[in-house]
Design goal:
single chain; Nuclear Transport Factor 2, Chain: A; seven-stranded mixed beta sheet; Nuclear transport factor 2 family protein; NTF2-like_dom_sf
Length: about 120
């Protein structure tokens, strides 16, 4: 797949809440990078570890109040997708946030994902 095709597919799957299929777009040796100050690992390596990290994060959500997945912007082998979420977490309370998700594509798979957002004061 081209970078544009990967970007379009990721956005489609996220909008349909088909997250496991979305993570199937990642390379086996992909890397995910979170913001400094967030609980857990800042850098997660490997598709399975990234998926498990997502599951752990999702299990911490008590209620989702809203959110959105924007359209991708592609430049060469990178793309960015704006996303937002308003959720109440089991620990930490309600958090509404906007983020930019930046992806690098290599050989038709997401090789790296990095997320940019304001880190909340939780707890």
């Amino acid at each position: 797949m081209t970078t544009q095709e990967v970007a379009n597919q990721l956005v489609k799957l996220c909008r349909e809440e088909k997250y496991q299929e979305a993570y199937d777009l990642y390379a086996e040796d992909a890397v995910s990078i979170e913001m400094d100050g967030m609980p857990g690992e800042k850098v997660t390596s490997g598709k399975e570890n990234i998926w498990n990290g997502y599951l752990q994060w999702a299990q911490g959500i008590e209620e989702i109040h809203g959110g959105s997945v924007g359209d991708p912007v592609v430049a060469a082998n990178h793309f960015v997708v704006p996303m937002s979420m308003d959720a109440t977490f089991k620990e930490g309370g309600r958090w509404a946030f906007d983020e930019l998700c930046v992806y690098q594509v290599e050989n038709g798979k997401i090789k790296q994902a990095q997320y940019f957002y304001e880190v909340p004061e939780m707890g």
